[in-house]
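Internal ticket - ligand job 365, (molybdopterin-S,S)-OXO-molybdenum:
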Amino acid sequence: AMAQDGNELPDYVAWKDANDLIVHSKQTLETRRAAQGAALITPSNDLYIRNNLPAPSDEIVADRDAWEISFEGVANPATMTLAQLKTMGVETVVSVLQCSGNGRAFFAHETSGTQWSVGAAGNVVWTGVPLRAVIDALGGENAELPWLTGTGGEEIPPGIDPTTVMVERSVPKEAIDQAILAWEMNGEPIPLAHGGPLRLIVPGYFGVNNVKYLKKLALTAEESPAKIQQSGYRLRAVGEKGNASQPSMFEMSVKSWITSPLMDTASGKVQIHGVAMGGTSAPSKIEVSVDGGETWTEAKFIGPDMGPYAWRPFVLIAELAAGDHVLASRATNAAGDSQPADFEPNERGYGNNGWRAHAVDVTVS
Ligand code: MSS
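stdout (C-alpha cells):
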C-alpha cells in the first residue's frame, strides 16, 4: 500500500495502515500526528517502526513457542523456550514505546537521524512473564553484576565487527523489577516488525532499551561493548562525540503534545485533544494554552488510569476567537516533574520534551 507521502510500505510491514504512517525509510516509519488523536491504545497497524538492522526473516515467527533465550549472570544459567516462559507467569502492562529521537525534528540545530516529529511513540499493551519471576526461578541474580544486558536476534553480516552494528543494550539492573519478557502486543502475538517472538519490555525506558527478538539476557559486570550502548544513544553537547561517560537514554521524562486541531479551524468552541505521558510515573496534571504559553488552563484526562507507564489522552473545550493561535500543552507527573519550555539541544536530538517545540500554530477563521 502507498502512504500519503507517496512511499510504499515495506513488505514486512505491508499489513500496517499506510494512511496513518509516514515512511521515512524501510526501517523507520512514523505515526501521523493526526492519527494519534485521542486513542487510549495505539492500534498495532498505526504503531511506528524503528529498526537499526533489517528485521530477521519471518521464519523466526513460524514456530514461536520454539524460540530460545539464554539467561546468564544468574545462579543457574539456562536456556529456555518461549513455551517454558509461558508457564512461569503472565502479566499485562500498558507502556509507552517511544524512540529516543522522537521530537528530533523540532530542534533548531541540524541533527543526523530520522526527523521524527511526535509519531515515534505509541501507547501499547504488552503481555508476558515478569522478568523477576524468571530470574528467581533461576536462583536469583548475581548481586555483584550491576547491568541487565539484552541481545537482539538479528544475524550479523559476516566480516564485520559485531559490536559496530549489533543491537545489545544494558540498563541498570533495578529495571528487573518492572521488566517483562513479552510475547503479546495489543492482545496478539508480537508481530515480527515489533520484535516477536519475544521482546524485552522495560516500562518507562526509551524505545532502544526494549530489545526485539530477544535471544540472550544476562546480568553483566559492564555495559554492553556494542556501539549502540557505548557511544550511541547518549546525551551529548552539540558537536561532541559520543562516549560512555555521557548520560544514556534510559528513563523517559514527562511529555505531552496536542493532536487536534492541527490545521485551520472555525471560531467558537473547539475540542483540543492530545496525549500526555509521565515517563516513570503517571501523568497527574495536564494544562493547555491557546496563547503560546502566556496563560494555561487545566485540561481533563480521558479514559481510565492505565498505570504509571501509560499515556493518557486529554481534552479541553476552549473558546477560540478568530485569529492566529499557538496551542501548547504542558504535563506534570506524579513525581512532580513538569515539562520544560525548552529541552537543551544535544548532538543527536534525543529526549525532546520541551512544550514550546511541540506547540502547534492554528489559524481560526
Ligand atoms: N531491538 C532490536 N533487536 N533491533 C533494533 O533495531 N531498535 C530499538 C528498539 N529495539 C531495535 C530494537 C529502537 S531504537 C527503538 S526506538 C524500538 O526498538 C522501536 O520499536 P518498534 O517496535 O516501534 O519498531 Mo529508538 O530509541
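Auto-summary: The pocket of (molybdopterin-S,S)-OXO-molybdenum is lined by residues 47-53, 97, 99-101, 152, 154, 167, 194-195, 206-208, 210-213 (CB under 6 Å). The longest helix spans residues 131-137.
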